[in-house]
Amino acid sequence: MKHFNIALIPGDGIGPEVVAEGIKVLKAIEEADKTISFTFKEFPWGCEYYLKNGKMMDDDALDILKDYDAIYLGAVGYPGVPDHISLRDLLIKIRKGFDQYVNLRPVELLHPDLTPLKNKTEKDIDMLVIRENSEGEYSGAGDWLFKDKPEEVVLQTGVFSRKGTERIIRYAYEEARKSNRTLTSISKGNALNYSMVFWDQVFEEVGKEYPDVKTYSYLVDAASLYFVSQPERFEVVVTSNLFGDIVTDIGAAITGGMGLATGANINPERKYPSMFEPVHGSAPDIAGKGIANPIAAIWSVSQMLDFFGLEEWAEAVLNTIKQILKENTYLTPDLGGSVSTDELGSHFVELLIKNRG
């Protein structure tokens, strides 16, 4: 029996709605496969908790979470709580505290009708973006000088350590080698004359250990253009915290929208739990209406299963997502359908179990 203990942070807006469908999938897998079991513990942290308690989560939250096998997060952010507080005091705090330095964001076209790009197929849009997730532009270093005075100055400092830069780039090379794909680095060395020149240098240094991996390097502006005009250029991509955040939203746009965007925050050494989340945000405008698209949250379940070593179930979940998109009858309004979040999730479970026989 393989048992996994999962911490749930449904969070804000549509987070609880889509997480509920992901849990539905995990419980169905548990019912169908008697060699697997899951337990869940839900925590009320998020913006509503902040408005009541003045903090996004308990002071000892990391101590509470550290012994779980994984964290399943719904969404963070809601009107009334500044974005820099909701992001930094929960999501980034967990990423940093648990050294989840690898952010995996698949940019994969699951059905040709979903892309707004002309004449692009599933074969053309199939990449994995590996984003540095612990430092860089999101390090939080800086200062605010002479506030509210004419000479006011703000400093936002990107932090690129040798350790942090080398380990994410090495992880990407390993992934490219393992999957026999090309590796592209995205930086901005022509303008950022310290951080990105260093990034490019480390990419070249580590690359000497991987002569079998074919590599490319693009400036982030050019890469953003190619994401739209020639996405087939990219297979495995490695980039910094900020650039990874931006280009993966472009990736979501060319593969069907944020309702299909998922991400995994990985601690490869497994010293701490990893965290899995849809990355569409809390969408407060549709919260409580029952129309949120749960596919990204379910895709993050596939990533979690893969991390647990349950590759067959992970693949089955992803294949079922593709089947639902192909059927085109059980889709939420954002994808042109009319079913509810719950209806899509229930139909998904039926198909998943049927397919597994």
Q: What is the topology, as strand order, of the major beta sheet?
A: 2-1-3-12-11-4-5-10-8-9
Structural class given helices, strands, pairing? Answer: alpha/beta
- Biggest pleated-sheet summary: 10 strands, mixed
CATH class of the largest domain: Alpha Beta
Q: What is the count of DSSP helices, taking H or I runs of 4+ residues?
A: 11
How many whole angstroms does the radius of gyration measure? 20 Å
H and E string = EHEHHEHEEEEHEHEHEHEEHHH
Euclidean distance between termini CA atoms: 20 Å
Instruction: Please state the average pLDDT score.
Output: 96
CATH topology call of the largest domain: Isopropylmalate Dehydrogenase
How would you portray this structure in words?
There is one protein chain. Helices cover 41% and strands 22% of the residues. By secondary structure, the chain is α/β, with parallel strands linked by helices. The chain has two domains: 1-110 and 257-357, Isopropylmalate Dehydrogenase (3-Layer(aba) Sandwich); 116-255, 3-Layer(aba) Sandwich (Isopropylmalate Dehydrogenase), CATH 3.40.718.10. Helix 5 packs across helix 6 (195-207). It is globular and about 60 Å long. It starts with a strand and ends with a helix. The mean pLDDT is 96. It comes from Oceanobacillus caeni. Residues 5-348 form the Isopropylmalate dehydrogenase-like domain. Belongs to the isocitrate and isopropylmalate dehydrogenases family. Its cofactor is Mn(2+); Mg(2+).
